[in-house]
Design a protein that fits this description.
Helix 2 runs antiparallel to helix 3 and helix 3 packs across helix 4. About 40% of the residues lie in helices and about 20% in strands. Strands 1, 2, 3, 4, 5, 6, 7, 8, 9, 10, 11 and 12 form a twelve-stranded mixed β-sheet that branches. The protein is an alpha+beta fold and about 450 residues long.
């Protein structure tokens, strides 16, 4: 509670009446605070219990996976274990700590779940893991067992009053000892590094350690050169650009800002290697829309062409508030390369370009030796469900979660309800590999 004592009795007398009311209010606030603390502790305790239970179930199911020699059984077990991992992450998000504060722990659980989904898919196709995969699964199981045992101990100590639950918004790294947060930090520090896995999933080495293919043969440019590139892209004198320095990100970029006469600000990033504009954003919020998505697509295409971006085809246009976001992809040998994407945001009130993002293009674009299809479009269309017919088809290049590329037929269809439906079939054997709904 606040201390309302003053240095003189005169001030005390003057504030006496107000103090009575204020003290009552402070007492009520303190009681409310204590009540909120009790509720928060109970809520956090329940989340901790759910977290420990889900991890325990994940641990148990993973142990069962290690002994499965029947492909359908292994597929079922891996799928169940992946669901356990998702439940653990959901419970973890309800604790007074963010996944960023316990990033290694959440990443380990998430990566384990992703790998289990991969093994489940493989087993569903009749493929059992070889000795290397078995070893990787055992290594992940060991890490999950460590977490499950540690969480069980922390839950018991908290239930017996030995550990206090941290207050919400306090953070797991607040420095307090004898709290659930401090024990979770210690447990996370004891967790081994996530193994280096090579598989078709987002936690594979290929996906996690990707390099910008478009910049591989490019040399570093100076900030002065990057400034000239940014100014030309924005159509403003170089003197109007303010440097934001060099960012130490996966793709290092020089950043610049420029202020407009209306007070809005545009930010632009130019890659250190190659001097390519990676992204552009604008602080202006567009007014009521006067243009449609067709207008946005036309303006976005003209914007790209004027800045030397060629060999691209518009693949989608969506509305995000009063901004039309148009996505383009590169075309090689008649194949639409969907990983090589560039998006342009157009303000629908006046047609100004308010955003540009070439990250996917820079990460993925490079000349490719594209294979020929193993089946015809007509044969691949046999994968379409009964009652669904393709309005159009084309060859496209897809990227899997593990950063592998697949040649596929894209069939643009209509769902029975009339909505857009896109079905992708492998160009190698005609089997379905991806389905999208609602794409325009």
């Amino acid at each position: 509670m606040k201390n309302y004592r003053t240095a003189t009795s005169i001030v005390i007398a003057l504030l006496c009446v107000a103090l009575i009311g204020t003290s009552a209010l402070a007492l009520a606030e303190r009681e409310d605070s204590l009540s909120a603390g009790r509720i928060g502790s109970a809520y956090g305790g329940a989340a901790l219990g759910e977290f420990a239970m889900s991890l325990g179930e994940l641990d148990e199911t993973l142990q069962q996976c290690l002994y499965a020699t029947d492909a359908p059984l292994l597929s079922s077990l891996c799928s169940r274990a992946a669901a356990n991992a998702a439940s653990a992450l959901s419970a973890m998000s309800s604790l007074p700590y963010s996944t960023q504060e316990l990033e290694r722990m959440s990443g380990y659980i998430n990566g384990t779940g992703d790998y289990l989904l991969y093994l489940s898919r493989e087993a569903a196709r009749g493929s059992l893991p070889d000795s290397r995969r078995r070893g990787e699964l055992a290594e992940l199981a060991g890490g999950i067992s460590l977490l499950a045992d540690g969480l069980g101990r922390i839950l018991t100590e908290h239930s017996e009053g030995g550990l206090d639950m941290d207050e919400y918004a306090s953070g797991a790294d607040a420095g307090s000892e004898d709290t659930v947060g401090s024990e979770l930090r210690a447990l996370e520090e004891s967790l081994p590094d996530f193994p280096r896995l090579e598989y078709d999933g987002e936690y594979s080495v290929s996906a996690l350690e990707r390099e910008a293919r478009y910049l591989q043969d490019s040399s570093a440019v100076s900030e002065a050169h990057a400034r000239s590139v940014a100014a030309a892209f924005l159509g403003v004198p170089q003197t109007r650009l303010t440097s934001a320095g060099l960012s130490e990100t996966d793709v290092p970029c020089y950043g610049f800002t420029v202020s407009g006469e209306d007070g809005t600000e545009r930010s632009i990033a130019v890659t250190e290697r190659g001097g390519v504009v990676l992204a552009l954003s604008c602080s202006r919020s567009p007014g009521a829309a006067a243009l449609d998505l067709d207008d946005a697509a036309e303006r976005a295409g003209r914007f790209l062409a004027n800045r030397g971006w060629s060999g691209l085809e518009s693949v989608s246009s969506v509305r995000a508030g009063d901004i039309g976001v148009v996505t383009f992809a590169a075309v090689q040998d008649g194949v639409l390369c969907l990983p090589d994407a560039v998006s342009v945001g157009v303000a629908l009130d006046n047609g100004d370009i308010c955003s540009f993002d070439a990250t996917d293009y820079v990460m993925n674009h490079a000349p490719r030796s594209l294979p020929g299809p193993g089946v015809s479009a007509e044969d691949a269309a046999l994968c379409l469900p009964q009652g669904v017919e393709a309005e159009s088809s084309r060859l496209v290049l897809l990227e899997t979660e593990g950063a592998r590329e697949l040649l596929a037929y894209e069939f643009a269809c209509r769902a029975p309800g009339g909505g857009p439906l896109t079905i992708y079939a492998s160009a190698a054997d005609g089997r379905q590999i991806k389905i999208e709904t609602g794409r325009s």
